[in-house]
Amino acid sequence: MSHPTHQMFVHHKIISRKRLTRSVDGLAYVVGIGGNIAVLPQILKAWQSNAPGLAITTWIAFSLLGLVWLAYAILHNSKPLIVAQVVGISCNLLVVGGWLYQNYWLL
Description:
The protein is mostly helical. The protein has a single domain, classed as Monooxygenase (Up-down Bundle), CATH 1.20.1280. The protein is built from four helices and no strands. The chain has helices at 4-34, 40-48, 56-75, 79-105.
C-alpha cells in the first residue's frame, strides 16, 4: 500500500500535466491560426497583381509539405496540428490560386 502523501503528489502531477497540456494545446491553436495571418499580404499580392517576385514553386512546395504534416497530425489525432495545417495549406493554396488566376486565367 502506498503512502497517502505519495498518492496526493502523483494525483497533483497528473492534474498539472493535464492543465499544461490544455494550455499548450490552446497556444498551439492560436499560433497555428494566427501565424498564418502573416501570409495574408502574399495572398492579396497574388490576387491583385501578377506578382512577378512571387516564387510559386515555393508555395506549391509549402502546400505539399503541409499535406504530409496534415497526414501525420491525423494519424496522431493532434487536433491543434490538424487545424494549423488545414489553415496553412488553405493559405498556401490561396497564394497559388491567385498567382495562377493573374498569370494564366486573365490573359
